[in-house]
Amino acid sequence: MKPSLTVKLAAPRGFCAGVVRAIDIVELALKKYGPPVYVRHEIVHNRFVVEGLEAKGAAFIDELDEAPDDRPVIFSAHGVPKSVPEEAQRRNLQFVDATCPLVSKVHREAERANAEGKQVILIGHQGHPEVIGTIGQLPQGTVTLIGEPGDVAGIEAQDGEDGSNMAYVTQTTLSIDDTADVIVALKERFPAIKEPKAGDICYATTNRQEAVKVIAPDCQGFLVVGAPNSSNSNRLVDVARKSGATKAYLVQRGKDVATLDLDGVTELGLTAGASAPEVLVEEILDALKERFDVTVSVEVVRDENVFFNVPRELRNVA
């Protein structure tokens, strides 16, 4: 007899508006231009999504020089340094920018602060594509990247110790609580630092973390469907553990479930990162049903109705 398991399915979960827009852009470009369409970097951080687009004719490349001159190129949802579209224009490449509008918002904030002569501080993860793209909006050496409260002590103030000539922006997919700790440390040292008018952590990251915080305290375990290189998915695992679900795991496919230690788990939270499709959530549920007698309870914490238009050059295809 299978042990009983109540699965608390988080809502909202999975695809955000920026991810939907990015995938739509690739599919519409394939429809408009025919395959192959080249995509610089993974359009979103999920192999299942990437492989599905490859099957339709998308070719994923690491850098622009791998793209031929006669085929369109798409830039990923994470954003790119300014040097990338500049190089595309130099080569007269047809290109479509799938950067999430909320990432573009951060780019514009950083540019405005730089234009005002302010020292720009970026809170984010070293090496993440979004961070590379944001740093690449400004002249080399003008952005200071920090990732945790302890990094604040190492910032060299270029003008004014109170931070009156500083501004900060953040990566959109960070842990809300961890970022808040960094911001507190920044303001303690630089009380006059300029902050974004609206927070930079995106609505989808915020809502998915909020749902996990609500559900996790009643669960012994928590599964987050997402990719190992997905920042927002990894943060959901962190939030689940901090909120009381000690057995919290990142899972990619249904086959991963068989390897998980779920002994003693009778209440299991389940969510998906912003780049994980719902079909994978269903796959995980099916795998859980092979091990347990599953009852699913949908936990609606927040409603989402955000939509982003695709770029103008693809709207006639849509």
Question: How would you characterize the overall build of this protein?
Answer:
With 318 residues, this protein is of the alpha/beta class. It has three domains: 4-15 and 203-300, Cobalt-precorrin-4 Transmethylase, domain 1; 17-100, Rossmann fold, CATH 3.40.50.11270; 102-189, 4-hydroxy-3-methylbut-2-enyl diphosphate reductase, catalytic domain (Cobalt-precorrin-4 Transmethylase, domain 1, 3-Layer(aba) Sandwich), CATH 3.40.1010. It is 36% helix and 19% strand. It contains ten helices and twelve strands. The protein has helices at 17-33, 47-56, 83-90, 101-115, 129-135, 176-189, 203-215, 231-242, 278-291, 312-315, and strands at residues 4-11, 37-40, 58-61, 73-75, 95-97, 119-123, 143-146, 166-170, 221-225, 247-251, 267-272, 293-300. It has a five-stranded parallel sheet with strand order 10-9-11-1-12, sandwiched between helices. Strands 3-2-4-5 form a four-stranded parallel sheet. β9 (221-225), α8 (231-242) and β10 form a beta-alpha-beta unit. α7 packs parallel to α8. The longest helix has 17 residues, at 17-33. It is flat and about 65 Å long. The mean pLDDT is 96.
Which percent band covers the strand fraction? 15-25%
Please state how the strands of the largest beta sheet are arranged side by side: 10-9-11-1-12
SS content category:
alpha/beta
Low-pLDDT sequence parts: none
Distance between the termini: 50 Å
Global geometry: flat
- Run of helices and strands: EHEHEEHEHEHEEHHEHEEHEH
Q: What is the β-strand count? A: 12
Question: What oligomeric state do the depicted chains represent?
Answer: single chain
**Tally of distinct domains:** 3
CATH topology of the largest domain: Cobalt-precorrin-4 Transmethylase, domain 1
Instruction: Indicate the CATH class of the largest domain.
Output: Alpha Beta
Q: Roughly what percent helix?
A: 25-40%
- What is the C-alpha radius of gyration, as a whole number of Å? 21 Å
How can the largest sheet be summarized? 5 strands, parallel
Number of helices: 10
State the fourth-level CATH superfamily of the largest domain: 4-hydroxy-3-methylbut-2-enyl diphosphate reductase, catalytic domain
